[in-house]
Amino acid sequence: MDDNLTIPRGTEGDVFIQVNNTAATEANLTFDASSNLPASVDVILYATSPDEAGASRELNMTAVAYGISEFGMNISVRSFATTGEKTIPIDVYFAGSFLRTIQVRIQVT
Q1: Distance from the CA of 12 to the CA of which of 23, 55, 83, 92 falls in 20 to 30 A?
Q2: Cα gap 102→92, rounded to integer Å
């Protein structure tokens, strides 16, 4: 994950997250960034582009067997956001059950 991105207030940036699957079977995962977002920060999770149809705070994807899959997160910071480090939690679900939370850090300037 290429987090710790610096995003000036009133702009946006993208973070790309790799999912490593070491299992012999595909894994259907859901990533959900709709809970506990920092104030004045919004996100869109996407497979190929933040402008794609259906892009939202939730993304369903299939992690390939013995491989690496990737998705992006577009992060928008409002012009009146406070500066400093922000943490964006993304909850991960496997087969409908909570697996873990990953955290993406950004610096707002």
Answers
A1: 92
A2: 7
Ramachandran class of 47: left when φ > 0, alpha when ψ lies in -120 to 50, beta otherwise? alpha
Residue whose structure tokens are 């997160």: 73
Q: Cα dihedral angle (11, 91, 105, 49), rounded to 10 degrees?
A: -40
Sign of CA dihedral 15, 16, 22, 24: positive
pLDDT tens for residues 63-88? 999 999 999 999 999 999 999 999 99
Cα–Cα distance for residue pair 31/97, rounded to 1 Å: 11
Cβ neighbors of 101 (< 8 A, separation 6 or more) are 89, 90, 91, 92
Cα 30 to Cα 98: distance, rounded to the nearest angstrom: 9
